[in-house]
Amino acid sequence: MTEWMNLLLIMLAFWSFMIMARPILPKSIEVHPFYLIWRTTRFNAFIERSGDKFRPIWKILWNIGIAVCIGGSIYITYTLTRNLYFLIFSVEEAHPVSLLIPGITLTPTLNTLLFFSISIVIILISHEFSHGVAARAENIKIKSTGLILLAIIPGAFVEPDEESLNNSRKLSQARVYAAGSMANIMIALFALFLLMNGSFIISPLYETQSSGILITGIVPNSPAEGILNTWDVIIGINNHRVYNAQDLENILKSLSPGSMAELSILRGGRLESLTIILGKSPTSNLSYIGIYIYPYYAPKYSLIPNFIPFYLFNSLNWIYMLSLSVGLINIMPIPALDGDKLANVILKYLFKNGQSIYKILRWYCLMVLLLNISMSFVAFPSFRFG
Fold this sequence. Notes:
Elements: H1 2-20, E1 29-32, E2 35-40, H2 44-52, H3 55-89, H4 110-137, E3 142-150, E4 153-160, H5 162-166, H6 170-196, H7 198-202, E5 213-218, E6 233-237, E7 240-241, H8 245-253, E8 260-267, E9 270-277, E10 279-280, E11 287-288, E12 291-295, H9 308-330, H10 338-350, H11 354-379
Antiparallel strand pairs: 1-2, 2-3, 3-4, 5-6, 5-12, 6-7, 6-8, 8-9, 10-11
Helix pairs in contact: 2-4, 3-6, 3-11, 4-6, 4-9, 6-9, 6-10, 10-11
C-alpha cells in the first residue's frame, strides 16, 4: 500500500506542476490532466527520406508484416484465452499478466530501471519510425511526430494525414498498421539471435565459461551489507570452489543460518578472504547472504571491467522480452491499438459482414486482456518483474 501511495503522490505532484506551468510552455506541448502530448515536424524530412529509399523493399517487408501480425494476433489471443482459463480453474499453471509500473510491478532497482528504460526507448522509436516509413512508402503524408505521456506511461507517435491515409488502398493502410509491430518483433528476434550467440560476441574480451559469481547488487539490511561490494566476485566458500549459481546454492544448503562462512573473493582484481555470518532467507529456511548475482566471465585483459557482460546480456534480454510482448499485444484487435485498425481493414475487405465480426472480436479481446491483468493481481499479489 505504501508503494501505491508514494507513486500516487509523486504522480499528482508532477501533473499539478505541469498544469500550473501550462501558460509558459511552448505551443507545441499540450497538457491536460494526466495527459501530455508534444508535437513537432522536425523529424518529418528524415522519415520521408527513409521511406523514399528502397520503397519496393519496404513494401515487401510490410507485406510480410501483415502476415506476421495476423498470425501473431491469433497466437497471443489464444495464449491469453488459455491463461485466463488457468487463472480461473488452475492457478498453478497460469502466468501473471501485468502492466509494468516502476515501484509497483517493476522492481525499482537502478539496474532494472536502466534496462527497462533502454528497452522502452528502442521499442518506441523503432515502432513509430516504422509507421512513418511505411506511410511514406505508400505516398501517405506525415503531419507530425512527437511524444506522449499518459499518467506515467510514456509513448511516441508518428501522425499520418488522416485524409491521405483513409483515401489510400486497403493494402496500403494494412501495411502502415502492421509496420510498427513488425519492427518490434524483428528487433526481438535480432536480440534473441545475439543472446543465443552471446559466447561468441564476448569471446574476444572475456572467457566464455563462468568462473565465479559476480555480485551485481547488495540487499539492504542483509548479512552482505557493509562486507561485500557490488562487482565483487565470489570464487569460493569455506574452501569449496564456486563456479556458478548452482555451486553457491549447494554450499548454502549445507550451511545453517547464523553460521560463519569464509568467502574467497576477487575485488579490484585482487584475491581477498573475509568472513560473513549467514542470515536466514526471507522466503525459505536456507542460509542467506543477501546479494544479487550473475555469472562471472573473467576478462582476458586487466583493464577491461568485469560488468560489461552483465549489462550487455541483460539489456538484450529485456529488449527481447519487452519488444516481443509489446509487438504481440499491440497487434491484438483491441480499441486504440494498431491491431484494431488492421483487423478492421482486413475483415471489411474479406467479409460482407466484416464489421459485425470486427466488433465482436475487438470486445472479446479487450475483455480477455483486462481479465488477465485484473485476475493476475489477485492470483499473484506479490508479482514483481526484474
